Amino acid sequence: MKTFLAKKETVKRDWVIVDAKDQVLGRLAVKIANLLRGRDKPTYTPHVDTGNFVVVINADKIVLTGKKEEQKKYMFYSGYVGGEKYLSVAQMQERRPDFVVKHAVKGMLPKNRLARKMLTKLKVFAGEEHPHEAQQPKPVSL
Questions:
Q1: Chain centre distance of CA 32
Q2: What CATH topology corresponds to 15-139?
Q3: How do strand 122-124 and strand 53-57 relate by DSSP bridges?
Q4: pTM, whole model, 2 decimals?
Q5: Alpha-carbon torsion 40, 41, 43, 48, what sign?
Q6: What does the pLDDT look like over 80-126, one tens digit per residue?
Q7: Among 142, 138, 114, CA closest to 55
Q8: How far is the C-alpha of 79 from the C-alpha of 114, rounded, in Å?
Q9: How far apart are CA 18 and CA 31, in angstroms?
């Protein structure tokens, strides 16, 4: 019996929708990363992008455990001397709630070209509304 290896031409991608309301950020990011990679499919092949398109709604309603809301910091650097800026998770939730989820999922993916391509299949929205109704995403319970 030969080992099955998926080819990018034969991969069938579905659209799934994930509701992030009252979900713990890290646990949610692991499950989303597995959906993006295709780890939930029997045709999973590590060197081929076999994953689904993932739409995440209610990104502004995620939950963090412990004191991460105030203690966890995101660092941004302008490139100039003294151009470092630190923002807490609470500040980022106010400004860009989609960034917090995308950043967590990006950390769960491998660091290579294939993972950067997988990350383009992730669509994150702060509220209930999203423009991907035409794709008829199936709800996924996590």
A1: 5
A2: Ribosomal Protein L13p; Chain: A; (3.90.1180)
A3: parallel
A4: 0.93
A5: negative
A6: 999 999 999 999 999 999 999 999 999 999 999 999 999 999 999 99
A7: 138
A8: 27
A9: 10
